[in-house]
């Protein structure tokens, strides 16, 4: 059974000082593990069942060395405290924590209804009644969160979960911003981070975030407007071919209201998507909007929600074959039998115990020798990939992979080109799903292989998790690293790339397109992603002939005319 906060019987009175969610002496052996629910840069969320009670949880597993390496110690501390403090039917509940020598664990409420994103995907778009009900529960939860002195900062359909009954739960507080100190008598988190720090997701981020201005609770209201639009239209209001172009649409408020959308919904969305944060209505004002006419707020969480569209996926949800070596990477070597017997052997799929000779199994026969990039070229000659390539661009490798996002795991084709970039292609529609330009600076790109199938591609701003279905993880790493070496050997003349810059007028930590020119001044041109201004910046060059990170930005050389080469690069 899935555990719901309303079913625990636990007193709502918090003890003076201390954690509501206890720090238990659990180990991995206390649980059965099911499918992966989500993946992050330093954590995994796995469905888990307590053996002695049968209660289900979403177990968040955070590897300690990754937390330290990714500099997330303060974020983990903050999320633990926030989840322990918040108590509302629309907030995912934290029930317990524990740790071992390798990992930290959070036992979170299991939301078996899935994500809002999945409901939109299955239905195309939601009915007005569905959108109104879900928006009302999101709004009521945000009203509570804001009153508690928090900005969520990452409201999006993937972070809106459902209970099995169909009520909303807002998840993922790792990006939340505290407007005042939080304490429970044991630990205290201070609001010392700049509220203008960039967090969030491109399609839902407020324009003030992109302009490096202080952010308030109105940023969540902008995101609510985007989510409401997506529920009624089936797609977000701001969507483009790249993150950069999406940012441009956001800052220009470039979106179209569909004709089929009810006027009352258009009016509310128009108010929420106001470029001026101070002019956006807050939660309490939005509750009075005619769009929510008929909503009985005092009875909202006890009323009957709209029926959920169920998943078409089949199979035993406690089958560890769905999890594979993801758990093994976190030392989760628990046997999955209901009898509770344990084992120290690695997690395996049913095939491993079926009596089939592993040396003659189909998977073994097709397993490549690690570090053989040629295996990635088997399907490169197919003409179906040419539509995704630019003039003169060559395909280095391609394969069928599973792409892990925060709460989903889907099959796609993964392409590697000499631009260099990774291209994600929808397996059913054979259409462009997403593309990732790879940094040309070797220090800004890292490929980590977990096993023969699973690998991650890390850059300063993002991390992507893949599982190659032909077990070519080592081949992907070797191919990408080889491409890095070849790219580094290119002449500096007229070479364009993406680098990280800091300082005005650039938004700190964002990418800017630059065109390197060989001359004595070591001066390069750049375009700020935050305001499109053309600036002169300085870049250090070493005797090895390679470009190196920009060390300063000269704001006195801001010009109005953009370099044509940079404009061309920006539109690619």
TrEMBL record:
This is non-specific serine/threonine protein kinase. Its EC number is 2.7.11.1. ATP binds at residue 60. Residues 526-535 have a biased composition (Polar residues). It is an enzyme of class 2 (transferase). Residues 337-349, 358-374 have a biased composition (Low complexity). Gene3D superfamilies: Phosphorylase Kinase, domain 1, Pleckstrin-homology domain (PH domain)/Phosphotyrosine-binding domain (PTB), Transferase(Phosphotransferase) domain 1. Belongs to the protein kinase superfamily. AGC Ser/Thr protein kinase family. PDPK1 subfamily. GO terms for molecular function: ATP binding; protein serine/threonine kinase activity. Residues 334-380, 513-572 are annotated as: Disordered. It catalyses: L-threonyl-[protein] + ATP = O-phospho-L-threonyl-[protein] + ADP + H(+); L-seryl-[protein] + ATP = O-phospho-L-seryl-[protein] + ADP + H(+). Residues 31-292 form the Protein kinase domain. The keyword Lyase does not apply. It comes from the Eukaryota. Keywords: ATP-binding, Kinase, Nucleotide-binding, Serine/threonine-protein kinase, Transferase. SUPFAM superfamilies: PH domain-like (SSF50729), Protein kinase-like (PK-like) (SSF56112). InterPro entries: Kinase-like_dom_sf, PDK1-typ_PH, PDPK1, PH-like_dom_sf, Prot_kinase_dom, Protein_kinase_ATP_BS, Ser/Thr_kinase_AS, Ser_Thr_kinase_AGC. Residues 554-563 have a biased composition (Basic and acidic residues).
């Amino acid at each position: 059974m899935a555990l719901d906060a309303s079913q625990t019987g636990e007193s709502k009175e918090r003890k003076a000082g201390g954690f509501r969610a206890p720090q238990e002496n659990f180990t991995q052996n206390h649980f059965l593990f099911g499918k992966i629910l989500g993946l992050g840069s330093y954590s995994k969320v796995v469905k888990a069942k307590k053996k002695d009670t049968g209660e289900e949880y979403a177990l968040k597993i955070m590897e300690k060395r990754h937390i330290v390496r990714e500099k997330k110690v303060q974020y983990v501390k903050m999320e633990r405290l926030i989840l322990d403090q918040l108590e509302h039917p629309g907030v995912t509940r934290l029930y317990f924590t524990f740790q071992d020598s390798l990992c930290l664990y959070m036992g979170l409420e299991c939301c078996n209804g899935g994500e809002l994103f999945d409901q939109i995907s299955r239905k195309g778009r939601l009915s007005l009644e569905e959108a109104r009900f879900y928006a009302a529960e999101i709004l009521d939860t945000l009203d509570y969160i804001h009153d508690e002195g928090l900005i969520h900062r990452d409201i999006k359909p993937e972070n809106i979960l459902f209970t099995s009954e169909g009520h909303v739960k807002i998840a993922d507080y790792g990006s939340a911003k505290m407007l005042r100190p939080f304490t429970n008598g044991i630990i205290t988190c201070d609001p010392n981070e700049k509220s203008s720090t960039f967090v969030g997701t491109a399609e839902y981020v407020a324009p003030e975030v992109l302009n490096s201005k202080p952010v308030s609770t109105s940023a969540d209201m902008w995101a609510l407007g985007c989510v409401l639009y997506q529920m009624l239209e089936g797609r977000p209001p701001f969507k483009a071919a790249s993150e950069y172009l999406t940012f441009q649409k956001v800052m220009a408020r470039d979106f179209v209201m569909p004709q089929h959308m009810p006027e009352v919904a258009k009016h509310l969305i128009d108010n929420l998507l106001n470029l001026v944060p101070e002019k956006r209505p807050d939660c309490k004002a939005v509750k009075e909007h005619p769009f929510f006419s008929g909503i009985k707020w005092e009875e909202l969480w006890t009323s009957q929600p709209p029926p959920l569209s169920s998943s078409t996926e089949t199979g035993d949800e406690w089958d560890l074959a769905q999890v594979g070596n993801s758990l093994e990477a976190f030392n989760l070597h628990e046997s999955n039998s209901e009898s509770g017997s344990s084992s120290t052997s690695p997690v395996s799929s049913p095939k491993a115990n079926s009596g089939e000779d592993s040396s003659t199994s189909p998977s073994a026969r097709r397993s490549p020798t690690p570090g053989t990039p040629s295996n990635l070229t088997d399907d490169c000659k197919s003409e179906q990939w040419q539509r995704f390539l630019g003039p003169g661009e060559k395909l280095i490798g391609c394969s069928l992979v599973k792409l892990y996002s925060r709460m989903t795991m889907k099959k796609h084709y993964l392409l590697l080109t000499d631009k260099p970039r990774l291209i994600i292609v929808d397996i059913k529609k054979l259409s462009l799903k997403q593309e990732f330009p790879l940094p040309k600076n070797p220090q800004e790109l890292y490929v980590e292989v977990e096993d023969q199938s699973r690998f991650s591609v890390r850059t300063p701003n993002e991390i992507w998790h893949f599982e190659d279905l032909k077990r070519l993880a080592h081949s992907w790493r070797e191919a990408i690293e080889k491409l890095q070496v070849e790219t580094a050997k290119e002449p500096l003349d007229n070479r364009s790339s993406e680098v990280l810059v800091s300082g005005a007028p650039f938004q700190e930590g964002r990418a800017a397109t630059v065109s390197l020119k060989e001359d004595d001044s070591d001066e390069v041109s750049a375009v700020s992603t935050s305001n499109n201004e053309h600036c002169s910046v300085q870049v250090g060059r070493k005797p090895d002939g390679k470009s190196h990170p920009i060390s300063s930005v000269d704001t006195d050389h801001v010009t109005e005319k953009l370099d044509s080469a940079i404009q061309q690069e920006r539109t690619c």
